[in-house]
């Protein structure tokens, strides 16, 4: 034994002198540090210091030797860094992904899960696990987090004296509940004695890790296993691994019994998780956890039970203590800063009241001030104070060159308190995270969740969990400090901990409404009833006057279904579904062809479907250009943009027309082709070749295209805002149409008081906020560059001149900013036009593409003709598309036109008559809403033989010549026709061309079975499925 020890010492000395006189030491010794002992370096400082003193030493080191220092641990060097530029160099690189040696102590527990793995295994696991933190999956987790927040509140109410004696332990108990239920789908509270052992084992493993970290001679697993602490670790690991393995086995058995039907839904959404809760999880009430995802993908990635266990254990470890300590410090900071606590409480209370006292994901996302508080708390007290990496090659930092193989300690704690980046760094100020203050800050001066490729995969989860716990806490309690942050004694650990229990006082808030409050509520209800009575009386009086006038005499000549006095047909419209409304409307069109009327209270809608009448209305230059009631409903969103504008419509149209010039469209075509390629790639990744929701799938890509061409912004680069933006647009579409057929919501004041009105306000806040931010950033960019690209945009010459720089695409937003420079528009005008084009070009193109794909899938012969045309043109262009190539696809264009005939994306146009108008059969008085049915005009057998048949040759030049020009108006007609129709046709061509080139389209759902709904855009009531079978071009 002595001989072995002597040999080891000799080898150690030999290694020391080899390193001391080599290149490695020559670089390291240039980095400043305290004097060190030969052979041992600074290792004795570590052995002699307590965890508490080790923390102080590291802080002193960072202050004395800022921004870089070193420590020798025998022959091995640690280099500490606390300068954001240096951190960026290391963390943003894909080369330095290996974690430091201290993480090796976690291997017995976590093996090589996501936290500790490296190389190809890390890349593969990261790819597998990323979908588990998608917006749609987080929506399921949020219910668990909110429940746990409510459990914390209930537990605090049961504490005598309102004092929590150990806040970190109390919070840790609940965060472990939350992480276990979201990771494994297991409620610890219901697991009896085994959950007590599990909790204790996790706690013991944390203590063992720190114990071993402070004793370098225990770095060797074989030596450590012989010690009492090593035996204790083995006992804890048996409990931890046994617990996880039992749950994995039970979960797998459960899915086998259910034929993996939940897993199939789950795995199918990994590449395109855009559906709602029901689609992602199979059954509304069935929550699936990260463990279910791992079981679902295990066969595809050759993952065995051991691989699954290490990822589950990793997430329990990573998401338990970090969130617990993040919450602990946030609670203490709020307790010490009463004015900030009160601001958080006001925000939470307002949102809770708007949501009837309940929390939801959207409610948490609205808590912007609370989010700033949490970010500032994580700045002052990051849960992980140090990050460790091993350099895989020499790195030149700002001051020194650090050699390959060095362990780097990245000092997050000190960077977050660097006065060069954070004025008054020790002050708790949530407003540091206002958008305008973030913009110019160094991106690596704030990294509570690390940064670069190995950043924390669960950071959105963590922020939502902290919000879900803090929100009910401040809503139900006043927080008061007992222990103060200035008195804390921090210790060295992987997690930012203190050496003692932390106490806080939570005083319950009584939310029982007072007598005065109840009286005020009764008064409001009485006033509302009085207002409704006055409205009813006024409506009755108006109806009586109206019924005896010229208006009613003219209207009553027009045929209609029998109606009720006073209410007209409104009652029928209110009680039937949107699906039935579509059927009723088209039945009336057939029965009362070519004109009919309906009364909605005192308002009249006249349905028209004859081309002569449509021509008279749409070609008018002054009488019938207003869009009336629909316009007023759209105004909160689109303002007075081109679609909605009445007074200055001509001026806006003139400004915007050049945006769709040939040279500008040429740039847009590049975006369309890129998005078409993205669609093809996404389809190739779908298992089984079946798209389960074609509309959702296509809309994802058309929204990308419209945003990039309109604003120059790729939604993929918008991070968490992408899903919010998409959801807000979808929500607003539903709200607008619901309001259209509820006349009592016509008043903006009344509508604002409803739940739908509040939802609209919330959606508008998101949409307007994102677009205003993009406009502001783009204007700042042009101010910095003196608008040089804009100057070239104004020239109407070749491609290079138009875009300024060959690789710089300019968009409609750039064009509008150019016009604003000439004082033709302000920022509000720009925002209105951008939002108008997104609204008009998103849903319409999505539905047109959907129906075209379905028609081609059902008509194989026509699909094959399109494919032949596309293949010939692609071969002639060396397999690439361009604007000229798309323009040559005449047969595809005829197919698109015929698809738009059968299924126009806008099924009707609304106008309001401003004076008497003589139609073919009747005189229509002013003030009437004119409902121009494009859908029925396009299927009129007087103009279209066999109108239900899909026949692209209807649009051969010789067949178009003698056709009524107003029998086909998919893009409207007359002065207010669609300004972007050429844009729409090019986008549809680009996407369909690539689709038929790469896939055989086969129907799953058939057009005859589609159930349409009444909407602003021609939609159906259910998902549409289609099969896309890849074509192998190698043969």
Characterization of the model:
This protein is an alpha+beta fold. The protein has 2 domains: 81-268 and 288-505, Cytochrome p450 (Orthogonal Bundle); 611-1030, Orthogonal Bundle (Cytochrome p450), CATH 1.10.630.10. It is 56% helix and 8% strand. The longest helix is centred in the middle third of the chain and has 33 residues, at 515-547. The chain is globular and about 115 Å long. 40% of the residues are buried.
Task: Name some characteristics of this structure.
1035 residues; Cytochrome p450; iron; alpha+beta; 22 strands; Cyt_P450; transmembrane; oxidoreductase; globular; metal-binding; 4-stranded mixed β-sheet; 44 helices
Name the strands of the widest sheet in spatial order: 1-2-7-4
As residue ranges, the low-confidence spans are 269-285, 796-807
CATH topology of the largest domain: Cytochrome p450
How many domains make up the 3D coordinates? 2
Shape: globular
Number of alpha- plus pi-helical segments: 44
Number of strand segments: 22
**Structural class of the helix and strand makeup?**
alpha+beta
As an assembly, this protein is single chain
Terminal-residue CA separation = 70 Å
What CATH first level of the largest domain would be assigned?
Answer: Mainly Alpha
Q: What proportion of the residues form beta strands (DSSP E)?
A: 5-15%
The CATH homologous superfamily of the largest domain: Cytochrome P450
Report the helical percentage: 55-70%
Major pleated sheet: 4 strands, mixed
Using only C-alpha atoms, the radius of gyration works out to 34 Å
- The CATH level-2 architecture of the largest domain is identified as Orthogonal Bundle
- Mean pLDDT across the residues is 83
């Amino acid at each position: 034994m002595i001989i072995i020890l002597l040999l080891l010492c000799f080898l150690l000395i030999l290694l020391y002198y080899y390193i001391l006189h080599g290149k490695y030491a020559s670089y390291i010794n240039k980095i400043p540090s305290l004097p060190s002992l030969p052979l041992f370096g600074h290792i004795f400082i570590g052995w002699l210091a307590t965890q508490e003193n080790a923390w102080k030493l590291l802080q002193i080191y960072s202050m004395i030797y800022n921004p870089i220092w070193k420590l020798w641990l025998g022959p091995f060097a640690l280099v500490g860094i606390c300068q954001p530029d240096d951190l960026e160099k290391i963390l943003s690189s894909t080369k330095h992904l290996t974690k430091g040696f201290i993480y090796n102590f976690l291997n017995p527990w976590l093996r090589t899960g996501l936290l500790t793995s490296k190389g190809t295994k890390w890349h593969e696991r990261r790819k597998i696990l990323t979908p588990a933190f998608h917006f749609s999956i987080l929506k399921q987790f949020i219910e668990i987090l909110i429940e746990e927040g409510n459990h914390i509140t209930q537990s605090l109410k049961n504490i005598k004296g309102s004092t929590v004696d150990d806040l970190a332990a109390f919070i840790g108990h609940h965060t472990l509940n939350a992480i276990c239920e979201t990771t494994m789908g297991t409620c610890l509270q219901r697991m009896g004695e085994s959950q007590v052992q599990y909790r204790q084992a996790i706690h013991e493993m944390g203590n063992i890790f720190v114990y071993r970290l402070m004793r370098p001679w225990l770095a060797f697993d074989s030596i450590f296993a012989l010690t009492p602490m090593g035996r204790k670790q083995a006992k804890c690991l048996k409990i931890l691994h046994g617990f996880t393995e039992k749950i994995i086995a039970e979960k797998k058995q459960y899915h086998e019994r259910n034929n993996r039907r939940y897993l199939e839904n789950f795995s199918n959404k990994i590449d395109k998780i855009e559906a709602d809760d029901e689609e992602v999880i199979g059954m509304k009430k069935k929550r699936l956890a990260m463990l279910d995802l791992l079981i679902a993908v295990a066969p595809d990635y050759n993952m065995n039970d051991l691989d699954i266990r290490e990822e589950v254990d990793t997430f329990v470890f990573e998401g338990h203590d970090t969130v617990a300590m993040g919450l602990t410090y946030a609670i203490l900071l709020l307790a010490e800063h009463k004015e900030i606590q009160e601001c958080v409480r006001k925000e939470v209370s307002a949102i809770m009241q708007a949501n009837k006292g309940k929390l939801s994901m959207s409610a948490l996302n609205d808590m912007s001030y609370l989010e700033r508080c949490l970010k500032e708390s994580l700045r002052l007290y990051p849960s992980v104070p140090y990050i460790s990496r091993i350099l895989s090659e020499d790195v030149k930092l700002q001051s020194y060159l650090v050699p390959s193989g060095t362990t780097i300690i990245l000092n997050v704690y000190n960077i977050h308190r660097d006065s060069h980046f954070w004025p008054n760094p020790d002050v708790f100020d949530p407003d540091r995270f206002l958008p305008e203050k973030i913009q110019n800050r160094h991106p690596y001066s704030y990294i509570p969740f690390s940064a670069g490729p190995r950043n924390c995969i669960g950071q959105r989860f963590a922020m939502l969990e902290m919000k879900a716990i803090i929100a009910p806490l401040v809503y139900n309690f006043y927080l008061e400090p007992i222990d103060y942050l200035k008195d804390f004694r921090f210790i060295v650990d992987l997690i930012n901990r203190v050496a003692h229990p932390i106490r806080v006082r939570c005083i319950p808030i009584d939310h029982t409404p007072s007598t005065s409050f109840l009286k005020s509520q009764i008064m409001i209800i009485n006033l509302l009833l009085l207002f409704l009575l006055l409205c009813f009386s006024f409506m009755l009086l108006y109806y009586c006057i109206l019924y005896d006038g010229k208006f009613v005499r003219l209207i009553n000549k027009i045929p209609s279904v029998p109606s009720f006095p006073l209410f007209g047909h409104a009652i029928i419209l209110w009680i039937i579904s949107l699906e039935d409304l579509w059927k009723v409307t088209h039945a009336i069109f057939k029965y009362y062809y070519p004109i009919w009327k309906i009364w909605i209270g005192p308002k009249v809608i006249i349905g028209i479907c004859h081309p002569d009448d449509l021509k008279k209305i749409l070609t008018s230059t002054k009488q019938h250009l207003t869009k009336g009631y629909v316009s007023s409903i759209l105004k909160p969103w689109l303002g007075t943009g081109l679609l909605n504008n009445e007074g200055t419509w001509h001026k806006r149209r003139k400004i915007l027309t050049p945006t769709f010039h040939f040279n500008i469209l040429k740039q847009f075509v590049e975006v369309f082709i890129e998005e078409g390629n993205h669609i093809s790639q996404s389809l190739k990744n779908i298992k089984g070749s079946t798209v389960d929701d074609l509309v959702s799938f296509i809309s994802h890509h058309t929204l990308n295209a419209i945003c990039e061409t309109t604003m120059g912004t790729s939604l993929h680069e918008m991070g968490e805002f992408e899903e919010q933006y998409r959801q807000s647009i979808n929500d607003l579409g539903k709200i607008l149409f619901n309001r259209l057929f509820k006349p009592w919501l016509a008043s903006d004041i009344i509508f604002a008081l409803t739940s739908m009105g509040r939802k609209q306000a919330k959606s508008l806040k998101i949409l307007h906020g994102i677009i205003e931010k993009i406009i502001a950033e783009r204007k700042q960019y042009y101010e910095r560059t003196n608008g040089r690209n804009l100057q070239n945009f104004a020239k109407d010459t070749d491609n290079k001149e138009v875009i300024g720089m060959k690789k710089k695409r300019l968009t409609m937003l750039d064009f509008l900013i150019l016009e604003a420079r000439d004082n033709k528009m302000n920022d509000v005008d720009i925002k209105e036009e951008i939002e108008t084009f997104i609204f008009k070009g998103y849903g319409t193109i999505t539905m047109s593409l959907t129906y075209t794909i379905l028609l081609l899938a059902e008509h194989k012969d026509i699909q094959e003709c399109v494919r032949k045309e596309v293949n010939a043109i692609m071969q002639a262009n060396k397999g690439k598309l361009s604007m000229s190539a798309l323009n040559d696809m005449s047969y595809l264009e005829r197919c698109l036109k015929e698809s738009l005939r059968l299924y126009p994306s806008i099924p009707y146009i609304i106008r309001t008559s401003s004076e008497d108008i003589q139609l073919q059969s009747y005189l229509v008085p002013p003030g009437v809403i004119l409902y121009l049915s494009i859908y029925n005009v396009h299927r009129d057998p007087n103009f279209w033989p066999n109108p239900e048949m899909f026949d692209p040759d209807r649009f051969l030049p010789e067949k178009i010549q003698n056709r009524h020009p107003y029998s086909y108006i998919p893009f409207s007609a007359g002065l207010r026709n669609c300004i972007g129709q050429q844009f729409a046709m090019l986008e549809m061509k680009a996407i369909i061309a690539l689709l038929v080139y790469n896939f055989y389209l086969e129907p799953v759902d058939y057009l005859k079975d589609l159930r349409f709904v009444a909407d602003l855009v021609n939609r159906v009531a259910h998902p549409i499925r289609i099969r896309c079978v890849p074509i192998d071009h190698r043969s």
